[in-house]
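Problem: given the chain below (163 residues), write out its structure.
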Amino acid sequence: MLNKTDKGRAEVQPGARTLGQRERAVLLMTDGQRPTGELHQLFGGLGRAIVAQLLAQGYITEVRTTAGAAPPERKVSADSFSGPRSLASARMFLFDLSERMFAPRDPQLALRHRDALREAKDVDTMLAVSRRMLLDIERMAGTERADAISERLAKLLPESALV
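Solution.
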């Protein structure tokens, strides 16, 4: 099992961004309870190299548990999500986000994002739209806000969308 180090926890805090999107996604999923093999399978098997990189750079560490020991207690964020992880949930979140973030400030941008979401018929296209939205959020509201929304979106997406 793997877990974040202090350096890794600092990296996932709002405002901190030194890693790329895939490295941050793996780091977010590294929680001391998820099997290492599951992390290795992310991004079509590229997760193995990302895990090795995060280990080498000190963002994560291997946690050794003794046989029969209870796994470490999972920390629960204040913004826990108990609904189903699905593309539909993520899509509705993005539609709502477009209305709340863009419509009041830039109605044309909101319309472009809504149209792009309607046209997104597969996972890759929807993820591309979400990346463009996050870039616009970062431009309009700052890195900290974009990071917080990215983390929330990661909780809504099915884990298969990260593969």
